């Protein structure tokens, strides 16, 4: 008898995949994580601004320069299923802080590391502006 697969809740799924993107340390890891996270037809809104999939990818890539590691702390998440009870489609909002450990090469060949923190932002008025 085959076991029934039960997908994880949307919040859990979205947190896992966004963490994979932010923690990727190579371009191939980043591309694989990004493609696993967003469909080609995804609708993306960041702080009230609509972005194409490619714009969102460039935005995330711009936050990652010579990364050597990261940690992500999800503060809150909200999910609204599209059909009222589906765990597979809908809207997910994530509020998080990512600490990204950057690497800088010095002329001596040794690398210096320093952390950078990124935080998602929530507009208190709900306008996204």
TrEMBL record:
<protein>
    <submittedName>
        <fullName>Uncharacterized protein</fullName>
    </submittedName>
</protein>
């Amino acid at each position: 008898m085959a076991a029934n697969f039960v997908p994880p809740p949307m919040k859990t799924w979205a947190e896992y995949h966004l963490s994979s993107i932010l923690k990727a340390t190579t371009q191939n890891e980043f591309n694989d994580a990004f493609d696993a996270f967003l469909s080609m037809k995804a609708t993306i809104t960041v702080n009230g601004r609509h972005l194409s999939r490619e714009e969102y990818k460039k935005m995330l890539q711009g936050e990652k320069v010579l990364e050597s590691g990261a940690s992500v702390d999800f503060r809150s998440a909200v999910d609204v299923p599209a059909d009222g009870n589906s765990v597979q489609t809908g809207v997910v909002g994530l509020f998080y802080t990512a600490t990204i450990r950057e690497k800088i090469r010095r002329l001596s060949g040794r690398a210096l590391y320093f952390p950078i923190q990124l935080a998602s932002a929530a507009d208190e008025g709900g306008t996204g502006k």
